[in-house]
């Protein structure tokens, strides 16, 4: 996928926008940028992802942070 930038904007191909939407969080991983799609309704998405778990929000945060560190290669 080719992504272009101009005037501080990132342009994504149409098929990518159709698949993931147009709202993203940008994460600086020092050696690369990662775009993470933001759901239209983040609370509904969170409920969907965490349904069926009995973990607390703090436990889920710790696991998410650990996964991010592992994915970053640090």
In short:
It contains three helices and four strands; from the N terminus they run ββαββαα. It has helices at 14-20, 42-50, 57-72, and strands spanning 4-6, 9-11, 24-28, 33-37. A two-stranded antiparallel ribbon has the order 1-2.
List strands and helices in order, with pairings.
Blueprint: E1 4-6, E2 9-11, H1 14-20, E3 24-28, E4 33-37, H2 42-50, H3 57-72
Antiparallel strand pairs: 1-2, 3-4
Q: What does this entry look like structurally?
A:
A hairpin with a 2-residue loop joins strand 1 (4-6) and strand 2 (9-11). The chain contains three helices and four strands; from the N terminus they run ββαββαα. The chain has helices spanning 14-20, 42-50, 57-72; strands spanning 4-6, 9-11, 24-28, 33-37. With 74 residues, the chain is an alpha+beta fold. It is flat, with a radius of gyration of 15 Å. A two-stranded antiparallel sheet has the order 1-2. The protein has a two-stranded antiparallel sheet with strand order 3-4.
Average the pLDDT over all residues and give the rounded result: 81
**Principal-axis shape:** flat
Order of helices and strands: EEHEEHH
Low-confidence stretches: none
Report the radius of gyration as a whole number of Å: 15 Å
Number of DSSP-assigned strands: 4
SSE class:
alpha+beta
